[in-house]
Model the fold of this input.
Amino acid sequence: MTAPSTEDTADLFRHVSADKAAIYRCIMAVFAAAKRQYRLQLRPDEVLAEAPWPAAPPRIEEVNAALAQLAAWGNLESQPDMARVSSIDDFYRARYLYRLSPGGEAVETAMSVFIQTLRHHAELQTVALEDIVSRLQALQALIASGPDGADVAKVHETLRDLVRVFEGLAENAQAFMAGIARNLELQQADATAVANYKRRLIDYLERFMGDLVRRSDTIARTILALSPHIDAQLGLVAEREARDAAPGDAADQAEERLRRWESWRERWSGLRGWFLPTGHAPPQAELLRARARSAIPQLLGAIQSLNERRSGRSDRSADFRALAGWFLDCTDDAEAHRLARAAFALNPARHFSLNPSTDQDLPASPPWADAPSYAGIWVTSLIRRRFVKRPRGSGHRQ
Done:
C-alpha cells in the first residue's frame, strides 16, 4: 500500500478554510460522532437531521453537494445506496451512503486534539499524587508476593497505569509552571474579581503544596525500596511486550527486547527524578513546589500594581509607551525634536544652575542651544561614578 502524496493529504484540510467551512465542519462533526457510536454509514437526510447547524439548516441539495465535495477531497468515502431502490427511476437516481475515510478520521482526531489542547487548563493534580502512591504500593506488593516471583501480566498492567498517571501529572505541572505568569496578568481586572481570585489561588496552591510535601516522602521511600528489584521486572515486562512484535530472527527479537527495556528504564528514571535528587539537580517535585510558592508573591505584586493604578500613582512604563506612540505620530524630525525638548525639559536652560562658579542665574526663557557655556558644568564625582548626588554643602570637582 503506497503512502498518500503531500497534495492528497493537503486536500484533507481544505474544508477547514473553504467558503462553506461552517457547513463542512458541521457535516464532519456528524460523521465523527457516528464513528464514536459505531455507526458505519450515514445518508444525506440523516446528516441534515443530526448536524449541529449554527443557524437555519441548509437545503438537502446543499448537503448533497457538500458531501460530494468532501468525498472528492478524500475526507469521506461513498458507495451507491441500493437499499431504498423501489423503481427504475430510483435505480438511475444518484443516491449514496457516506462514511469517514481513513484520512478523514485522522483529520478529525487531529482537530479534536487541537481543540482540546487550546481549551486545556493547567492543573496541579493532588488526585494524581494519590494514584501514584497506590500504584507504587501495588507494584511493591506484587514484587514481594512470593518466592515464585511476581505475576508479570499484573506488573505490566500496574506499570502502564503508573506511567499514564505520572505523565498526566508531569504534563499538567509543566503547563502550570509555564502559564502561571500569564494567569497573573490582573492589572486590568476588577478589584473584586482580583480579591476573589487571590483567595481561590492561594487556597489552591496551599492545598496542593501540603499534599505534595506529605505524599512526596512516601513516594520517594517506595521508589527507593523498589530500586533493587525494578530492573529485573522491567526486563520481564519488555520481554512480554516484545512477544507481540512482528516476527523476526533471534537478533531482531533481542534488539526489540532491548529497545523496550530501555524505554521502560527511561520512564522509570523520569519518575525517580521527579521525587528523588539526581546528581546535583533537585527533584522536579521540589522545583514545582518552589514555582507554586513563588506564584503567591507574584499574585500579591499584581494586586499591588492594580491598587497603585487605582490610587492614581503614575506608571512610568505606561508613560513611556504613550510617549513612543506620540513620536511615531510625528510628521517630521523637526516635530520630533520639539516633542523631545518638551518631554525631557530640554528647552529651558535651568540646568546651568548646576555651575557653582556662575554668579548669574539664568531664567527659564533662554533655550538650551542659546545658553552661554561659560567654563563648563561642575558635576559631583559621585554622580559620575555611582549616579548618587552629593549632599548640599559638599565640595564639587569638575
Observations:
- Strands lie at 76-80, 96-100.
- The first helix runs from residue 6 to 11.
- The longest strand covers residues 76-80.
- The radius of gyration is 35 Å.
